[in-house]
Amino acid sequence: MKTPFNKVKFFISAVLFLAMALGLSMPMQTARAATPVVYVKPDNKCGGKKPCYTTIQAGVNAVDAGGTVNVAAGTYVEAVNVTKPLTLKGSAGAKIKPDNTTPMLDNGVRRVGVYINAVDNVTVDGFEIDGKGGTVHLGVYAFNSNNTTVKNNVIHHLLNDANNVAGVGIIYYGWGQAIDNALIQGNTVSYTDHHGIWIGAVQADGVTPILSSNNIIEDNTVHHTWQNTDGRPQDQLWGGAIGMDAAHDATIHGNSIDNTGFNMREIMLINGFDNVSITDNTLVHYDGADAHTVSWMQPAIEIASSTNSNLAITGNSITVNTKSSAESGWVVWLPDVAGNSSFNNNTITLTGRFAPGGSNYLHGLVFGYTGLDGNWTVQGNTFQGGNLGANSTGIRLYDWLPPTSAISISGNLFKGWATGIRTDALANAGLVTVNFNNITHNSTYGVLNDGSAVAIDATCNWWGAANGPGPVGPGKGDKVSTNVTFVPWLISPAPDGLCGDGGPLGTKQGVTVSLFNLLPTGDKNSDKKIQEAINKIQKIFDASLWVDASQLDPKHGNQFFDREKDAVNKLNELLKDKHSKIPTATLKGFIGNLIDADRALAQVAINAAAGGDPKEIDKANEELAKGDIDLANSKYGNAIEHYRLAWQHAQHAMP
């Protein structure tokens, strides 16, 4: 039985047969050949490689999604609009140079060298993008583009536009979506009216930031940004040579930035950050005074944000060259944070000129005022103040810090400032620790507590002298203010310097400070003897006498006991002076503390000799007991001698 379907089959077969009989051919649809790689050369001579095009745009249009456009050396007067995933690979000498006849690609209002137009997985590698001689607003513009790489390009001479939002070398911008997994690497960006490199995203309202993730800006050279060739007033200029807006798990690493114009920042982050690292960058910061009058120097690094956590700023070199003689400013401004953040192994160096005296200042590191209660570690940095300014400070802690924020400052160098570290009346003073730093050659104070009732813990620092700080202490090192705890201190520079924390060395340091605090007594003779005793004790702070805070050097221990005996003799003279105004019990307490520390040194040596010559150990213990009897009977010189002998026998007993 024939069905309608069978009739259709018969009809088609009949038509095909008739066509063949008449020698006719039927039109056939052929598949487009795959084009994963294309070539571009201005003269259309690609050395036999095909397909070959004369413009980059033609190559972009022709290549398959995910393919590669290989661009030969030459100058390409065009703007490239990328609307598919691909790799643009420029050979040495490949230059994109739009002129004023080149179409505006960014909504028809801005001229762009390469416009990555709302497409992911694009790479732009190895081009020069030259805006010189034309009106080119943006070098590479990645709009709503993720997983995009811009590397090994040289981009220069980008101009601002009437809306004051152009003049950027490389910009990634998200509108209504985040920008994720961007890599900007190995580029050179220069002579821009605004930023060199910027990554950010906002909601469709154009204001509310969107948190972007996993973006990396590394190993770029950025110079002569913020040239402001259209003469914008200063209040319309705001940003950095490299900037990010609202970032998570982001990295700014290994970049070199200098000659940033118009007093702008080298690195600026705004609108909230989490797990962001700024590492191993080299920044040369100019205050812009050669271009205009400067009263406030913007920071080299500024994180202007109220919601931050877990920031790491590590290994950066920051040199500030100030040319203004009447300005103030901060070199690095960091926010309060949630979580734990660090500013470690950086170098801040001030150079240039500064007006002597006056109220102006340049502070190296300043923390923000947003009220978050996380913790900061400041470790291993070098703060070189260059002796610029009578009020400049290496680290400035203002009273806006929250009461639960802990700040640990350790292992740093503070040199050449008016004040190494200065605090206001801090609500978190008890959580600020300043330990194992080298604080030297600062003209006014090493550490200044300017209002906190709670003392700042500044123990175990090197103040530039083995006898510690002044003027509240007896030493000749950098000064400390009241309400700064500085005992014990290092008797030689960190990191290898010895601190007397918990040992005989610290005890002796404490005695010198206690003696110093007795001055003046009201009796010149007493004052003289106290000072002589202090001077004698300070001689035992010679680092060559010590192995650690509880052990004497075997080769120099006898010198220690000689100097100790001289110091105690001076105090004993004062003890016998009937005109002395110092209570006998006080003096005996000081002498007892000194000799108790000698006993502890002998005991440590005996303990260390355990397992050695038993006869020598027995002799050491006998001398120790004799010393205890003489000390109890106020025979101070004899007690010191017995403890010396105990120590010597312990040395002989060492296995």
How would you characterize the overall build of this protein?
The chain is an alpha/beta fold. Among the domains are: 184 residues; 140 residues, no CATH class. Helices cover 21% and strands 33% of the residues. The strands form five sheets. The chain has a 28-stranded parallel β-sheet that branches. The radius of gyration is 37 Å and the shape is elongated. The N terminus is likely disordered.
* Major sheet summary line: 28 strands, parallel
Low-confidence stretches: 1-30
The backbone outline, from C-alpha atoms, is: elongated
Count the DSSP helices.
Answer: 8
Radius of gyration: 37 Å
Computed structural class: alpha/beta
Roughly what percent helix?
10-25%
* Strand composition percent: 25-35%
Write down how many β-strands occur, each being a DSSP E stretch of 2 or more residues. 47
Euclidean distance between termini CA atoms:
117 Å
What is the arithmetic mean of pLDDT?
Answer: 89
Would you spell out the secondary-structure blueprint of this structure?
Blueprint (H helix, E strand, L loop, with lengths): L3 H18 L15 E4 L11 E2 L2 H7 L4 E5 L2 E3 L3 E3 L3 E5 L3 E3 L15 E6 L4 E4 L2 E3 L7 E6 L5 E3 L2 E5 L9 E8 L7 E3 L2 E5 L4 E6 L9 E2 L2 E3 L2 E3 L16 E14 L2 E3 L6 E15 L2 E5 L9 E2 L3 E4 L3 E7 L2 E6 L5 E7 L5 E5 L2 E6 L9 E6 L7 E5 L2 E3 L8 E5 L9 E4 L2 E3 L3 E5 L8 E4 L2 E3 L4 E5 L6 E2 L11 E3 L5 E4 L3 E2 L18 H14 L6 H15 L7 E3 L2 E2 L4 H20 L7 H25 L5 H19 L3 H18 L2
Helix pairs in contact: 3-4, 3-6, 4-5, 5-6, 5-8, 6-7, 6-8, 7-8
